Amino acid sequence: MDDNNLRDKISKDIEDKERQYYRNSSDDESGPDNRDRTENQNADRQNSWRRWEIGRTNLEDIANFCRELAIMLEVGIPLLASLELITRRTRKPGLKKVLEDVVSKVSEGTPLSKACESHTDVFPLLFINIVRVGEAGGMLDYSLKRLEEIFMQRLSIRRKVRGAMLYPVIALFMALLVLMVVFVMVVPQFEALYEANDVALPAITSLTISVGNFLESWWHGVLLLIAGLIIALRFASKNILFKRLMDKIRLNIPFIGKVYRDVIIAQLSRTFESLMKSGIPLLDSLKILRETASNYFYGKEFHRVSMNVEKGGKMGQVLDKSVLFPPVMVDMLSVGEETGSIETVLTKLSTYYEDKVDNQLSALSSIIEPLLIIVIGGIVLFVAVSFLLPYWNLVNVIGQ
Fold first, then answer.
1. 3 state DSSP class of 21
2. 291-306 tens-digit pLDDT
3. Which of 106, 103, 115, 98 is nearest to 51 (CA)?
4. How many CA atoms are closer than 13 Å to the CA of 177, on its beta-carbon side?
5. Best CATH choice for the domain 152-400 from the list 1.10.940.10, 3.40.50.300, 3.30.450.40, 1.20.81.30
6. Can you say whether the dihedral through the CA atoms of 315, 267, 350, 289 is positive or negative?
7. pLDDT for 189-233, tens place per residue?
8. What's the predicted TM-score (pTM) here?
9. Does the first or last residue of the chain, that is N or C, have fewer Cβ atoms within 10 Å of its Cβ?
10. Rounded CA separation 304/44 (Å)
């Protein structure tokens, strides 16, 4: 298959999917069709059901699959035999079922990329397109290595972000748990003591006792409300409009939003670099980026970029007008586009932003920890003072 036919095939596959997600991505586009939106929501529900059926397949599973398959192909083991070996060693029942279906199709002569297309809930579009290029160019093992690098880099950033947020979340949870115990078990005892001695209660103490009485009577309702909110958020997260709203909120949170933007740029730069080095043409790489972007608004910008490039324009013409991309990135990509050194520029950009994210996450942790101590300390001080103010009055009365 020559380059033109390969480009046409990739473009067609991507165009079939792009209409499912990116609508209203530019001012001159028509509004979303209600029927299409309903179909998309139904597809989301079907994918969610399939994910529940096959179990949780995470990024590390796919990265390990790419690494193992690349090693086996590199040492000369045929593709089908390699897939069979990996399938036999897979422990997760859901992933094993998917791989068995892939093995069955490959054994019938179906290309690996085509066999994975029916399992987009496990194999992302990025995987399918890079594998397709590797198959066409006879460098499948190299393409799989590139995919492993992409997935492991994303996994590394994700772990760093979670690691930075783990301590604050655990600390807040434990603080709230202790406060619940205090309000439910300790507050009633102090209330009985004060009532028995007819002690006048300050407003701050009355407020604390009211909260304690409410939690003592309705603690089960509070727990059900929290569980309901978690379930509601989980269902809402599958709605495309809710996803867009959350994407917008994340981008605009003070300081954290800046870190979030740099995380996305680091991921997109590394993915863009890998796509170009894998031999995927610029226009098709841009289309893949808009489909695989973790934030809707960045995908929307790449949609505009791809449309401009398709008309013969330059990337920099669109990126320069966007507030989502930093000037240094726009300038470097524009220079790389003019000089034909986009791959080199993307390598430097991805390394720069990965290092920048590491530094920002470290700084975020150093800011959150003392702030958290102040917040928790303030809550503890408020509760302690509310209890001790009338207690000191009681001690004075008894002493007299």
1. helix
2. 888 888 998 898 998 8
3. 98
4. 6
5. 1.20.81.30
6. negative
7. 877 877 777 777 788 888 888 887 887 788 788 889 989 998 988
8. 0.70
9. C
10. 25
